[in-house]
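Course assignment 3, question 2. Fill in each field.
Student: A.L.
Task: Predict the tertiary structure for the chain below.
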Amino acid sequence: MLQCHYHCCRQLLTVRSFKINCWAAAVIMRSFTSNDRKVQRIYDCIIGGKRHGLAEGITLVESTHSKKKKQAQELLTAVLAKLKVREDNARRTNTFRIGLTGPPGAGKSTLIEALGKHLTAKDHKVAVLAVDPSSSLTGGSLLGDKTRMHELSRDPNAFIRASPSCGSLGGVARNTNDAVVLCEGAGYDTIIIETIGKHFLFEAEI
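Answer field:
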């Protein structure tokens, strides 16, 4: 009788602990609340690991519009706070950042696709941020690396984003670091940054 009572209490405590853990997880997920519906929606999508939300978030941080800059700052602050909670709980950084540079045609995209597929096959989530020369007419990317990574672009555990350099020196775009933060917030544990480098970028944009 006593043993049966013990097991019943133990099961009850287990159920209660499970409910408490679920409630705590929900509180953490919704710990950020914004008065701006757009910022809140993008944040929820990014933290939920949705690629379309991540793409929209990167577009927001790349914008030069004054209102969107404020929205981007609010979004980045919230995502950074979320990452801090994750790192404190894990007590270590869970993300690897890899930089890859070289002239056009050197095989960067081929290498990244092979590496990316190898990592996703081992249950890693890979984000590729390709910084391309920008068009002097539209300001957009000229090369479009996503079109050269057919297999990886279709992988559900991969995310590929080509961003224009917009004249930034050093081979990276002005908001590359912001994009990295958002990718980490979306749960990508390997971030690959591809660029053709400062010298080649300058020549391509001329």
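Instructor remarks: The CA atoms of residues 126 and 204 lie 27 Å apart. The chain is about 55% helix and 15% strand.
Grade: pending
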